[in-house]
Amino acid sequence: MKVVREEGYMRHESMIVPEGLSFIVPLAVAVAVAFFYDIHILAVFLLLLLLFVVNFFRNPERVFQGEERALLSPADGRVIRVDDEASHELLDESCRKISIFMNVFNVHVNRAPCSGVIESIRYKKGEFLSAGKDAASEQNEKNAVVIRTGGGRKLVTVQVAGLIARRIVCWVKEGMEVRKGERFGMIRFGSRLDVFLPRDASVSVKVGDKVRAGETPIGYWP
């Protein structure tokens, strides 16, 4: 596979992700119009909605300075499942699975758990069950991204759509090189991320833990 590094393609460093502008700009105009015509109740409602949308599409900087072996959380949210006996169709061996639930108030930009090359991307249509349910991993619309490290190890991050989240966004493509903590996509309006690690990788989180994308180690390479 040819490895490519497209800086422009991966440049999503603005405070608000571009995907949010199509929601933010019309709402801002609507707020201005409502205030101009003194429709105060509507104006306040629209202003609150605008603040919620701006907050949802925020894109803060994250810096990790811990161990090189660390595998970082790909999402902000809460760990809802840790499975030491799992499998994934894009991996040739049994693996460990960590599921992270993102509510509507979490940052929704997803980040690479480790550095490597995007070996494959598999999008699959499906249902829109509540992302907190275990069945969501199998039945919901999802997008799997396989990262292969320079040492030949592989892990999979799966963006899973939820009951409200109806849009999975992926900013990378096959053959691209990504760095640990680099942004690779997002899911609109609440969902989950499933991470599949090799069996020889350790897990450093438990159910109920809160994690931050690009900052919190969820496991370590051996």
Description of the molecule:
There is one protein chain. The chain is of the alpha+beta class. It folds into two domains: 18-56, no CATH class; 66-220, Glucose Permease (Domain IIA) (Distorted Sandwich), CATH 2.70.70.10. Helix content is 18%, strand content 33%. It has helices at residues 7-10, 21-36, 40-56, 136-139; strands at residues 70-72, 77-86, 95-102, 109-111, 116-124, 142-148, 154-160, 168-170, 177-178, 183-187, 191-198, 202-203, 210-211, 217-220. The strands form three sheets. The protein has an eight-stranded antiparallel sheet, with no helix packed on it. A three-stranded antiparallel sheet has the order 1-14-12, with no helix packed on it. The longest helix has 17 residues, at 40-56. The protein is elongated. The relative contact order is 0.23. Residues 1-9 have low confidence and may be disordered.
Short overview:
This protein is an alpha+beta fold and 222 residues long. Helix content is 18%, strand content 33%.
Blueprint of the fold:
Layout: H1 7-10, H2 21-36, H3 40-56, E1 70-72, E2 77-86, E3 95-102, E4 109-111, E5 116-124, H4 136-139, E6 142-148, E7 154-160, E8 168-170, E9 177-178, E10 183-187, E11 191-198, E12 202-203, E13 210-211, E14 217-220
Antiparallel strand pairs: 1-14, 2-3, 2-13, 3-11, 4-10, 5-6, 5-9, 6-7, 7-11, 8-10, 12-14
Helix pairs in contact: 2-3
Classified by CATH, the class of the largest domain is Mainly Beta
**Major sheet attributes:** 8 strands, antiparallel
**Strand order, sheet with most strands:** 9-5-6-7-11-3-2-13
CATH topology of the largest domain: Glucose Permease (Domain IIA)
Inertia-based shape: elongated
Residues in β-strands, percent:
25-35%
Task: Give the structural class.
Answer: alpha+beta
In terms of quaternary structure, what is this?
Answer: single chain
Q: Radius of gyration, Cα only, in angstroms?
A: 18 Å
Number of domains: 2
The counted number of beta strands is: 14
Q: What is the overall pLDDT average?
A: 88
Distance between the termini: 26 Å
| CATH architecture descriptor text of the largest domain | Distorted Sandwich
Unreliable spans are 1-9
Q: Give the H and E element order.
A: HHHEEEEEHEEEEEEEEE
CATH superfamily of the largest domain: Glucose Permease (Domain IIA)
Number of helices: 4
Task: Name the helicity range.
Answer: 10-25%
